[in-house]
Amino acid sequence: MVAVPPDFPSESESIAETFEIKRDVYTVSRLNREVKWLLTDNFPRLWIEGEVSNLARPASGHWYFTLKDGEAQVRCAMFRQHNRRLNFIPANGNHVLVRAQVSLFEPRGDFQLVVESMEEAGDGALRRAFEALKQRLHGEGLFAPEHKRSLPPWPERLGVITSPSGAAVRDVLTVLRRRFSGLEVILYPCQVQGESAKYEIARALETANRRHECDVLLLVRGGGSLEDLWAFNEEMVARAIHASRIPVVAGVGHEIDFTIADFAADHRAPTPSAAAETVSPDSEALHRHLVALENRISLWFQRHRRQLGQQLRWLTTRLRQTHPARRLTEKMQRLDEVTLRCQRALQSQLASRRQRLETRLARLARHHPADRLIRTRIQVEYLDRRLHEAQGRRLDRHKQYLGELSRALDTVSPLATLGRGYAIATDAETGHVLTEARQMQAGDHIRARLAQGQLLCEVKEVIEDE
């Protein structure tokens, strides 16, 4: 009978129930979370244009709205840390350009955009052109830090590239007059707004470099819209700044305004006034610095004089301590100390080596060949005795086993039966064993096998049992 394993399915059980496939079951929260990761990891931040609708501005400061076009719409969220940097507040119906990350609102499973920046759609084309030019020039290495030149700490002559009638030049001169009135200023006039502005700015930079009469150049303009500042986002201006051999400081617009000229310049200032402060030494600070230097020099001389006096006293004491007689006494004491240390070391080394010698002699005595030969001979005699004993025991076991087999063979042997007076009759001609009298007829010859020898007999009469 074949045994069935206990875990083998019975007729009433199905194989699918017994060998059940483990399933990876998602919860709704896990599904939404992994979909959010999938969207965030596979979509970069995108520029998206559309119309604002359903704008909500709760007390938390976050903005929630829908961005739509003629065929579709998408939910958007703009958190407080991003929307407070905007210079306008959007309203329903406004056409805007947003930079956003594709995401998912996990609690409701809503597809949404997390908006990081927003512009009015009127600036969208200019902003895209600005980003495209910025990326291209950055790829060419125009904004690389290794190309930036350091500003001179004490310029003697300053060049200003701006409109002579603008507020920027007045702000620069006011700051320079306050901070360092002795600094000479050279104005390179140019238009800073309009179609011809980029050519005039580039030409002014080339003129300043050709004359090489200034230590540093200020490229400045007051604030304005993106269109007003566009001359400073032209490639021609960026390459002229990069080609300048004189360090250029850009101070264009307000602190939140960034132009291509800011990235190409050697230093960027948030405003024209800040640019003037960057390159001009502060006369009051310079005076304080000179006073501090004078005090430091005076303190240094005093400290240096004290150090020299202390060194002189130390050398005098050292000279007395290093007198030949004193040194001779110290050397003799040192010699006695070294002699005693050598004697102690020699005695310690001799004792150690004597102990090692005694240990090795003892080990040598334990491993002498005569002792090992005696132990080996004893072991051989012991093993030989065990071998003879084992052979005798094994021979006795085999003799006993052979006797048992002989007795069993005698029990089943037909020769034992013959020994009790029986005989085996066979046909003398064919050799077949006879078991019935009718197998033979009168006059046939049979062979009778006895316990000792055989008989050849002739059949006189066949008598069959009833």
* CATH topology tier name of the domain at 143-285: Rossmann fold
Strand residue content: 15-25%
- State the secondary-structure class: alpha/beta
Largest sheet: 5 strands, mixed, barrel
Strand order of the largest sheet: 1-2-3-5-4
Taking all Cα atoms into account, the compactness measure Rg is: 59 Å
Shape: elongated
What is the string of SSEs from the N terminus onward? HHEEEHEEHEHEHEHEHEHHHHHEEE
Brief digest:
With 466 residues, the chain is an alpha/beta fold.
Report what the structure shows:
- It is a single chain.
- The chain is α/β, with parallel strands linked by helices.
- Among the domains are: 28-128, Beta Barrel (OB fold (Dihydrolipoamide Acetyltransferase, E2P)); 143-285, Rossmann fold (3-Layer(aba) Sandwich), CATH 3.40.50; 419-458, no CATH class.
- The protein is built from 13 helices and 13 strands.
- The chain has helices at residues 15-18, 28-42, 80-83, 124-140, 167-179, 197-211, 235-243, 260-264, 272-279, 283-321, 324-366, 369-412, 414-419; strands at residues 46-56, 63-68, 73-78, 95-105, 110-120, 157-162, 184-189, 216-221, 248-252, 267-268, 424-427, 445-449, 454-458.
- The strands form three sheets. A five-stranded mixed β-barrel has the order 1-2-3-5-4.
- Strand 4 and strand 5 (110-120) form a beta hairpin.
- Helix 5 packs parallel to helix 9 (272-279) and helix 6 runs parallel beside helix 7.
- The longest helix is centred in the last third of the chain and has 44 residues, at 369-412.
- The chain is elongated, with a radius of gyration of 59 Å.
- The chain starts with 14 loop residues before the first helix and ends in an 8-residue tail after the last strand.
- Mean pLDDT is 85; it is low at 1-16.
